[in-house]
Amino acid sequence: MSTGKRLGRLFETAPRIPFSNKSKIVLFSDCHRGDGGAADNFAKNQNIYFHALNYYYENGFAYFELGDGEELWENKSLISIMDNYRNIYRLFSRFYRKKRLHLLYGNHDIEKKRKSKAKCFDKGFCSRENRMLPLCPGIKFHEALVLRHRESQSEILLVHGHQADCFNYCFWRLSRFLVRYFWKPLETI
């Protein structure tokens, strides 16, 4: 299938999210949160990201993450990533409870489209209370969303963009293998 057809199909089938002139929306992409190890490129940015995310939460923004939130090509375990950045996922939970969290998957976290991976977002460990607490139970990860402007009915397609690259869309398993077993070790040198 051609790129145009793939994107057209996504545009036609994506859930619509209404917004107005008064809506507050922030779009993030490619955070690549990792496990905190030497190859975790997000680690150096975690504090500024957390404070920005908190600002957007406190000021009533809807948060859209347009894929590759987690680095699942270099890391096998989503749980280890979530455990490493508990404070961020707790904040995601607050956005979720207010219906202001919208997550897309990209090529590096495409596995989140599987229910078994998505279930990792149902609960998270709270060390303060020493127990599991609800995070984002039942959250859906989308390949695409469409923002629909209430006043004009104009629409904006939100995608990660890997759909336009056959290597990352069709052959993502090969790409993941190469990144996990060749690129990640090189990053730590």
Give an overview in words.
With 189 residues, this protein is α/β, with parallel strands linked by helices. It has one domain (3-187). The chain has seven helices and nine strands; from the N terminus they run αββαβααβαβββββαα. The strands form three sheets. Strands 2-3-4-7 form a four-stranded parallel beta sheet. Strands 1-8-9 form a three-stranded mixed beta sheet, covered by helices on one side. α2 (46-58) packs parallel to α4. It is globular, with a radius of gyration of 17 Å. The N and C termini lie far apart (39 Å). The mean pLDDT is 91.
The topology string of helices and strands comes to HEEHEHHEHEEEEEHH
Q: Could you say which structural class the secondary elements and strand pairing correspond to?
A: alpha/beta
Q: Biggest sheet: strands side by side, in what order?
A: 2-3-4-7
Count of β-strands: 9
How far from one another are the termini? 39 Å
Strand content: 15-25%
Helix content estimate: 25-40%
Main pleated-sheet profile = 4 strands, parallel
